[in-house]
Amino acid sequence: MILTIIASSLFYHYDYWPKWLKIYFGGFIFVGYVSKLIPVFLIVISDLVKIMRRLFRISQPKYKDGIKGMTRSEFIKKTGLVLGGVFFGTLTLGMFKWIYDFKVRKNVVNIPLLPQQFMGFRIVQISDIHLGSWVSKNELKEAVTIINDLKADVVFFTGDLVNYSTEEAYPFEQILKSVQSKYGVYSILGNHDYGDYKRWSSKEAKARNMEEMFDFYKHLGWKLLLNENQVIEIEGEEIAIIGVENWGSMSRFQKYGDIEKAIAGVEDKPVKLLLSHDPSHWELIISKYRTTIDVTFAGHTHGAQFGIEIPGMRWSPAQYIYNYWAGLYSLLNPITNDKQYLYVNRGIGAIGYPGRVGILPEITVVDLHS
């Protein structure tokens, strides 16, 4: 399959392939390689067993009571092949079934200083749409219908609208425009939204892409928070919505987030809600900040799009990279001694592997209470 991409690029470059073909072609290459990891590991163990037997001249009879049996190394090898087949089938099913199996996760967060007028204030969060990975519009329409049925007071989008460039979002503009909430939609940029993962013809072309991103948000009617804040008022009481640009702890991610700039003017508001794409920002900066941020909403991890989430057990490869990788967390601020929360959304889209297994695409509901 890789050779096919290389050969075909001599006549028709991979960049110009139909979107669905690129997604599934690349997806099957990924699934093929990943599915071989378990068989290869067990086959190596099988070979080591054979080598040790030969080195120490240990024989293992193939016949018992006149019936041909299976050696230990053969059993290990065949077990690996069976597991690899199961893994391949599961990952393939994840590409066509679970990728759009949206799950609504409901949470209640208690904030002691929450004004009475905001009791039951409903936040719906989505994150990591990655529009460059959507094959059709129907599934996104379904997600927007679910969002609208939740009757949100406010909708938060915590970054990664696209994979590589703003143009990926244009076919979905009308669908995203139909997202409804009482007090608007607030959004931030994720690491993929800056165009850093595409090779541009010039610096000017990259800068134009960024301006197109800003214009796209204006057309949607979503308020893009670029290290800034907005205040929502109900009957004279106020809460602050703060949004920072991307800040990631790893060297390959941007560090544009500026909480000092973003919070300016709303430090004294009784409740402060922050949108920050990468949860490492909360862990390393926000959770120890001089002013308590009551709830931070993040995304970025996707929960690795693969894992196990059943009662009593949560596991994902994401946990080996991020301490806070999915769901609701809380810590005491060491400066103010106030409790503060982080919610990490598992994402509604996908990138890399165009599927999900165990970690389903998420639409989050957070109801505020005191």
Give a nutshell description of this structure:
This protein is α/β, with parallel strands linked by helices and 370 residues long.
Which descriptors apply to this entry?
Purple Acid Phosphatase, chain A, domain 2, 20% strand, alpha/beta, 370 residues, 6-stranded mixed β-sheet, 9 helices, single chain, globular, 3 domains
Descriptive account of the structure:
- It contains nine helices and 16 strands.
- It is α/β, with parallel strands linked by helices and 370 residues long.
- The chain has three domains: 2-32, no CATH class; 36-96; 100-369, 4-Layer Sandwich (Purple Acid Phosphatase, chain A, domain 2), CATH 3.60.21.
- Strand 10, helix 9 and strand 11 (295-298) form a beta-alpha-beta unit.
- Helix 2 runs antiparallel to helix 4 and helix 3 (37-55) runs antiparallel to helix 4 (72-96).
- The chain is globular, with a radius of gyration of 25 Å.
- It starts with a helix and ends with a strand.
